[in-house]
Records
---
Amino acid sequence: MLSESIRGIAATTASFIKAEDILLVLLYSDKIKEKYMSMSSVTFSHIYEKMEGGQKNVQEDRFNEAMGVCVKYKDILTNIKKMNMIDTPINIYAMGKNGLSLVLTTENTILTGANYNLRPESEKAIFTNLAQSTGIYTDKDGVWISAYAPIPSVYSEKDKMLVEISYKIDAYIYRLRKELGIIILVCLIGFLVTAFMSYKLVSALVSDVQKLDKAAKEFEEERYDVPVDIKSDDEIGHLADTFEKLRVSIGEKIDELKLAIVREKRAHLESIVALTNAIEMRDPYTKEHLNRVEKYALLIARWIHLSKGEMIELKYACFLHDIGKIYIEAELLKKVKLAPGDFEEIKKHSERGAKIIEGIQFLEGVKDAVLHHQERYDGKGYPGGLKGEGIPLLARIVSVADAFDSMTTTRPYKKKMSFEEAMDEIERNAGTQFDPKICEVFLRYRNSIEKIAKKHFICSVD
């Protein structure tokens, strides 16, 4: 569970990073390191500030850009460390002839160019293009779990880069071993004490010891919901009380861990929302579009009685269905009239979006919705040309919600429709562009849809 969590953080972090930016930093790594060594009394970000203020006229533009990229990604990685309570550095490596070469780190020291041997997991991450995590391992600095995630590259597959996140678990292991040692010691003492008692008392104690043994097995199998039911005032009774307190304590810790996982997923979602904000800076329409699509889609989900888990995945899919547009030039998104080649470029956003979230464990059920939300029910959509119920259900829901909001919103290349016109268009395309069952539900609850439309001022309604 812990290794999957760290692997998910690494995969999400890697999705924020552009491979071309890292290649730029790598190109100027010697010069950046030389700049740092000549100004060793200041932090990395201050170097960039001083360069901007006093040396800009003597630096090449590309070197300026490389320094800016360093500062930007160092800030991003530092924020991710804080959000996920990671104590150790987050590192970015490039694959070289001599193994892994360090390009960027969250530390306030410049270690670019340092070479490291490939771990099996890092090598697997690079060549499978999927995030990987280690088991528990020990080195001279302690006990660890590490995760590696490849940085996606749109333009070239030969430049391999990855993100490394390591989590130190010494204290956690030490505490578990200490508590286990105390339990074993207390059990042993209790058992020796009972050996000196009378036969009748021993019989009673044996029964209690068997209960304790059963409780210990429950603990060993990580079942902490069965109370230790021993009522006596002797040593075994006190030991049972200790077991019960320990059971309750462990149960509370498990609840805290579950809460931490929920918070972690929330942090992932916040990170993803932050990524969608990057699209908004290039296309301001996107943010409110995503919010409206989410509301329409969740209404449909409630009406067709999706499970809680499916509704959560649908929510994520609504936020992420246009994430691939981050690779589309801002000027293209704002064009009034699209050329055939422009439309082909825009069509790639669904595949690119699915690629961004590939390998993120808790978004596994969302990937297909992102990939196939532009499919048509008659099989004439893209990218896979899927047809009918061969299209994933979440993708069919997002398709209707996305299309309705697009129709009722003014864009550079088209004017918005009225509410009635858009509803007629949904009805007209049921069974061709859209799933007819989804359309039937959507049209049946038009009053609820109209309330959302009025609230967001996106269409003309009476």
---
Amino acid sequence: MNKVYKLHARLLKTGFHNHPLSLQHLLLSCVPAAPQSLTYARSLFAHIPSPDTFAYNTIIRAHAHSSPSHALSFFSKMRHHDVSSDKFTFPFVLTACARLQVGQELHSLIVKMGFDSDIYVQNSLIALYGCRGSVQHALKVFDEMLQRDLVSWSSMIGCFVNNGFDNEALALFQQMQIQEDMKPDYVTMISVISAVSRLGELELGRWVDTYIRRIGMELTVPLGTALIDMYSRCGSVDESIRVFNEMPVRNLLTWSAMINGLAVHGRSGEALKFFYKMKNSGLHPDNNTLTGVLVACSHGGLVEDGWRVFESIRNEYGMKPLLEHYGCMVDLLGRAGLLYEAYDFVERMPMKPNSVIWRSLLGACVSHNHVKLAEKVKQRIYVLDPYHDGDYVLLSNAYGGVGRWDEREVLRNSMREKRVSKKPGYSLINLDQVTHGFVSGDSSHSNQWRQENSYFQ
């Protein structure tokens, strides 16, 4: 904002502060200072006697990301006052629409005005449809483009990833490499890494990591953090540590990704060490970091450490523990066999426990063959979620574990009467960069293996 104020002061001194062109130049200087400059920008815009296309484009652009409703309001005024739109207007308006998840009907106006073949408008349409989950519409725009740039490919890949089409995203990235002679940017690679993470393709993840190094891409904080998360999700936490150590700069998200990765792989002591190193570096944990630390304590059976971290949420960081933090503590106490302590902890929670928390305790009761408490917990779950098949199966297993077969049969009959059916398990296995899926109970021949994806072979 200092640059904006200095420019305004200079215009006041020279007497040009009411000149329309000077006001437009001043308005343009507010764009990089958004959102702090938005109120100031609206005041300046109100002093322009007859705003033209450039002035409207500038004020819409300033508000598109931080205050999209204002951006659409200015576009409406622009249309109302018969100010012509141009090819620069619609990318800003479409950005605002994407933030609000509205505006699909704007496409017809774009076609009517003849801007549907402009590459910047087309890229913005892909982004809009991606935000709204309209993948087919986004793909139609992409396929009809006569010319594509890096943003076009990156937007379509991001659209696939953000809507769960990870296989298609990786196939499109491969197509981009074959058809286009262009170097991907950080946005593209982060989308690719996200797709690999969800698919759990370790070898493909290593290929992506090597590719990033081969093209000389700098290991920025977002890119490094994405790689840490990818390796963790793909089961190679040691490679997560390697990427972490190679990063020249790290932020809270980086530390949290590393702590969570260690936690879910049962390396609890290392997760705590990273947590204390993070604190010593001057960073304060957020809710996600603290959840990761509590998960580490739970998986490692570190009850005292868990209590210490949980109590520090309020006492040291001045934050209120979230439902997730309480759930981690219930899981920690349950795994450690402190079942009644866990039950009392749930009863004393300041917010209403959900079925997930009670279900965590039920699983612990079954693991420790505590049928009496398991029955009590099952009743609490029944009030919240009476038709969840897993609860019946857990209690049934508890009865079977202690030889109470009659009660087990009664429970199974109850499931049939309530039409609660057990969902079959679904498993994946990766062989030679091909992921196969199979369903529990499928006894067919090799046809039961279903190829999920295959890339870069």
---
Amino acid sequence: MPPPVLWRASAYGCAEGAGQGRMTTGASTTVDPTRFQNLFPGLSQAEALATLRKPLEALEDVSDRYLAAAHLVNFPDERTIAALMTCAADDHPAQAQRIARRKAVESLARLGASQALPVIQACLNSEDVYLVENAVWALAELQAQPEAVTDTLLQLLKDGRQNRRVVAQTAARLGIQEAIAPLEALRREEDPLLVTAATAALARLTGNKDGLAALEDHLLHPDVTVRRAVIQDLMDAQAFDALAAIAAAPVSPVFRLRGVRHLADQQHRQGDAQAGVLLPLVDRILLDDPAAVTLVHRYDAPPSLDFLVQELYGTDFGRVYLAVATLMAAANADTLAALTRSFADRGWNDYGAHYHMIKLFGWLGNPQALPLVREALANRRPQFQKSRPAAALTLARLDPRHAETALQDAACEGSFWELRYAALMGLEQLQLPAPSATFADSDWLVALRAEAMASNGPAHG
């Protein structure tokens, strides 16, 4: 891969050189959809069903039906599927129903409700392009019969109003060979999101992966939307040679970790997973030292401390990593004070800044932040789950004498594999053995990490 172009991130304004790109909606992002699917744990199935059936004029808020359609994914039974199918078939033009219909299609796909395919296929003819996008994505999730949807998908590939990126992905997932010619045409478009999706789809349909190396260059694109999206394209194309480039891409660790994990799982199923290759990449992402990330921005003037702290709230992690690296390099007595003030003001409730501050507390090495770190390790709010593995590693760094019990507990917690894996890293950092339960972890990658630690000493009994 050629060296990256450094796009200037002004210390006084927005990044220069970054294009707007085309933001795709939820159906085609690379965020784990299950992480946030139960945001209303107090809402019962009966209440959600009643809300979904409530007359439009009786709704208290325009989003009520949408929220009910989203929440019903947590109740996979015939009543839920029937209600969602009714909602997905309702073409009432009111905004409350339009957004609920889109979400109902998505929820049906997440539930694996193949009986809903006729209803979903009917949505492909809608004038609502967002509904069409969700329906196209749902076809692939539910493995629709290619012959039933080929003609429609080929038409959509030529329709510039549609999200043709998602159409390309679905055509490839369904193995529609007739899409090869229109996909070749998409590769000549100016929109990089179309180019990369078409390239990945062609690799999947033809088996020819010669064009995938060019996709890696887009991991350093000035537009963060493109950088995120191309990770999905590399996943779709099974681009195993891109693992290291994905791990170093200047995007959120959530996107990088999902990309690496997806490809690692593919290798594991094929019997090709190599601990010596995969574990260092996962370790690198979870440690998330900006020195291990390929930066694509630079400052055109020395930034102030206040500016750098404010940058932690940004959504372009390429810019955020530049700020983190600068804060680490220029740290002084004022740095921790500025971070803790900002944390108390609003960082505690901004999951992006929260994550970066928890990491920075560890890099700065001052144990004054320990109460915030321990609180982050125990924080179970869904949006803040990214901070828990970061807190485990920061705890090991800031409190090596007293971190063992908390890390052992985290290594055996059943919530999500990233936390257990990071807790093992923290224990290894302290030269402590892996708990014996982790050798039989339900997640093969966590168990592999525990086995890699075994040479450091015996497991706990």
---
Amino acid sequence: MSTEQPQQQSIRVLFVDDQEEIRCLFSAGMRSEDIQLDTAVNGEDALKVLAAKGYDLVVTDVRMPVMDGIALLKAIKERYPRLFVVILTAHGTIEDAVKAMRLGAYDYILKPFDFSTIHRLIAMVNEHRMLLGENAESSEDTPYRFENIIGQDVRMFEVFHQIKTVASSMATVLITGESGTGKELVAHAIHSRSDRHEKPFIAVNCGAFADTLIQSELFGHEKGAFTGAGQRRSGHFEMANGGTIFLDEIADTSPDLQKTLLRLLESGSFFRVGGTSEQHTNVRIIAATNKDMVAEVLAGRFRKDLYYRLKVVSLELPPLRERRKDIPLLVEAQVRRIAREEKRKVVPCSPETMIFLLNHSWPGNVRELVNVLRNAIIFCDKEKIMPGHLPREILNVVGPTTLALNTGTLAEAEAALIRGALECVSGNLSLAAEKLGIARGTLYSKMGKYGIQRYE
């Protein structure tokens, strides 16, 4: 496979700000052959421009009349989920930047902005846009997809870069990350982009077999090697010859298997179980684990020499809670896929539901998200997936409604708690009242008492 660097392409940018002098200043500072720039005066104007012309990146101010930058970001993520969005915000409104990042903004820039910083950021966006390749351009249902991995978070783009770089190498790879982060997907992506892509890719879960069976699975056995071995059988290392073998849960292997794997890595040879004839294979090994391998080595449960043989190249996958901006993208893609598999109508998540999904800690990562969505789709009886379709543990999110002890007076504390609850559920009064344990009418009365406007 070619590892040639893609030629730099021009990028189409829409800048949104209600102040004419800022728009003129930005346009002057962004003059470049590689940047095609247009401007809009507010969120509503930007949506009209976006509907008429295609763009790669939107750079928008937060505080604007008619439709502010946060509302524009939400609308863009609903209508044009593959668009990169960068937020401009003043030092005093850093909370807006935090909110924007949670809603899927690629990055934010503090005012007064520095044009060299903006140029670097636009170059990075352009590089990431091209890295996504043909999928991002040709497939309407796979925004921000690299091979079969979806993500627009900067940490995922780092993973994409690593995959692309290591794919052309012969080096063994050790992938680490929590359960459910997509280690097998990454292994398959490396194989797909390598020179071995036309040869077999075989995945083996080392923790799924007893030690007496895993040796036979991996290396094969001779006839009569053990009870039930009625004929010679080739193992995965023979079947994967010329291709890639993925060894998941490598930390759970026994000392005997670790010794055999070390010999194979050093010499490319092995013996079938019960065999005396040396076998040879040309296979690339990609291993993965959700454990701390250094701790396993120090505890004597994993061979130090094998560990260093496996981690010639190491890739660490971030947990879902550390790339929350990818959740809306993942939800959109998985809802479509699950609906196809279950032969159901594609139903989007309501804004309130998305808030709960964004606030959950996802200890099971993407795998847990997929299971939650499948359950919701199966039982969904409405036009959208509502909070009531989610498991109880996801609805029991404390999040922004946590009361700080330094809030001040009791009235100030109550007002802060109400504001937090409203923000957590995107302004839905019924859900906010439910979280606070009060009637909807009582909540509305207290909002009037404290001068709290309905959340926008």
